[in-house]
Structure to design on (223 residues):
């Protein structure tokens, strides 16, 4: 099986494609495949030339931290939650998320997600849903990983513009639901950084690894 990786030495260098031959198991995740390529042997590319290890990020390897978000065969997904056998192809194409600056190879800098929450004062920090009205949706929304997949697929989101995307709208909903004193301020920043610019493609709901219903958060905030 061929693996093609979009590589980049550093944020300031040009990206380039490099291919690898993968002869490991298909009954593993793309994260497992990357580990196999990096550590199975001294790493060589498909031309047999020694090369440096492929940089990518991971932490939990269980689909619950969001660190391994990347673009696999054109789709923004979690590498540890995407199985090689399910890709059903002879060539796997790996690229970093395009909406965030690349640090190195498949690792991207997603600090803007938290930065946008902090700037607008809707960061929820550690969160425990309160029993009561809307508990189920609060609980679901609080699972947001801030992985950036929803922003990667969003036709309206560009890093650095004033539209902050689904992850932001979800935290607006949570802060709004829990802190009635802040409700008015939250509605204002929500309108400014989400409400007026979302074109409702709802592609974010297709790729969210936690299955969060952003449209429910939007409905609650627009109520
Ligand atoms: S490593 Fe945590 S979600 Fe993949």
């Amino acid at each position: 099986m061929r693996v093609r990786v979009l590589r980049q030495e550093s944020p300031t260098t040009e990206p380039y494609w490099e291919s690898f031959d993968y002869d490991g198991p298909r009954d593993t995740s793309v994260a497992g495949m990357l580990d196999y390529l990096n550590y199975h042997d001294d790493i060589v590319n498909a031309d047999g030339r020694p090369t440096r290890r492929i940089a990518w990020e991971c932490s939990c390897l269980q689909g619950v931290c969001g660190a391994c978000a990347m673009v696999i065969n054109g789709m923004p997904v979690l590498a540890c939650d995407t199985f090689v056998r399910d890709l059903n192809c002879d060539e796997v194409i790996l690229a970093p998320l395009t909406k965030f600056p690349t640090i190195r190879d498949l690792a991207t800098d997603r600090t803007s997600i938290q930065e946008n929450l902090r700037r607008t004062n809707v960061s929820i920090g550690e969160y425990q849903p309160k029993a009561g009205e809307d508990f189920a949706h609060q609980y679901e929304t609080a699972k947001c990983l801030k992985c950036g997949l929803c922003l990667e697929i969003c036709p309206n989101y560009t890093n650095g513009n004033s539209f902050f995307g689904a992850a932001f709208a979800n935290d607006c909903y949570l802060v709004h639901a829990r802190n009635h004193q802040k409700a008015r301020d939250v509605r204002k920043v929500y309108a400014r950084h989400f409400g007026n610019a979302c074109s409702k493609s709802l592609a974010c709901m297709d790729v969210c690894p936690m299955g969060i219903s952003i449209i429910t958060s939007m409905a609650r905030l627009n109520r």
